[in-house]
C-alpha cells in the first residue's frame, strides 16, 4: 500500500469513527425511547422487526460500552432474551448482531 493510500485509509477510518460517535450521541439522547422501540419490535412476530430490534440492541450495547455501563446493558439484553426465549428467530438475530463488528 502506498503512503498516499495509507493516509486516505486513515482519513476514512477517522471519519467512520466520528460518524459512529455522532450516532451514539443521538442515541444517548433517546436511550429510553430506544429500549421501548426494541420492546415494540420484539412484541411482534415479524422477522424484519426482530432485525431492527437486534440492530438497536447492538447500538445500545455500544453506547453502554462507551458510557462505562456495559454490564447493565448486557444484563438488560439477557433479561430481554430470557423473556422472549420462545422466539428463537429473535434470539438468533440478537446473538448475530452482538457478535458482528
Task: Give the beta-strand count.
Answer: 0
Characterize the overall form.
Answer: elongated
Fraction of residues in helices? Answer: over 70%
User: How would you characterize the largest beta sheet?
Assistant: none
**Count of DSSP-assigned helices:** 5
Radius of gyration: 16 Å
Q: Look at the helices and sheets and give the structural class.
A: mainly alpha
What fraction of the residues are assigned to beta strands by DSSP? under 5%
Stretches where pLDDT falls below 50 for ≥5 residues? none
| Element pattern in H and E | HHHHH
Distance between the termini: 24 Å
Mean pLDDT level:
95
Quick synopsis:
By secondary structure, this protein is an all-alpha fold. The protein contains 5 helices and no strands.
What does this entry look like structurally?
The chain has 101 residues and is mainly alpha-helical. The protein has a domain at 30-99. The chain is built from 5 helices and no strands. The protein has helices spanning 3-29, 31-42, 47-67, 70-83, 88-99. The chain is elongated and about 55 Å long. The mean pLDDT is 95.
Structural descriptors:
about 100 residues, mainly alpha, 5 helices, about 85% helix
Amino acid at each position: 500500500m502506498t503512503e498516499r493510500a495509507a493516509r486516505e485509509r486513515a482519513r476514512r477510518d477517522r471519519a467512520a469513527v466520528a460518524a459512529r460517535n455522532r450516532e451514539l450521541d443521538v442515541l444517548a439522547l433517546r436511550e429510553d425511547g430506544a429500549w421501548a422501540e426494541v420492546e415494540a419490535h420484539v412484541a411482534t412476530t415479524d422477522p424484519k422487526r426482530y432485525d431492527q430490534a437486534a440492530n438497536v440492541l447492538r447500538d445500545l450495547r455500544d453506547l453502554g460500552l462507551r458510557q462505562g455501563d456495559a454490564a447493565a446493558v448486557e444484563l438488560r439484553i439477557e433479561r430481554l432474551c430470557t423473556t422472549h426465549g420462545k422466539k428463537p428467530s429473535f434470539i438468533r438475530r440478537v446473538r448475530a448482531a452482538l457478535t458482528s463488528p
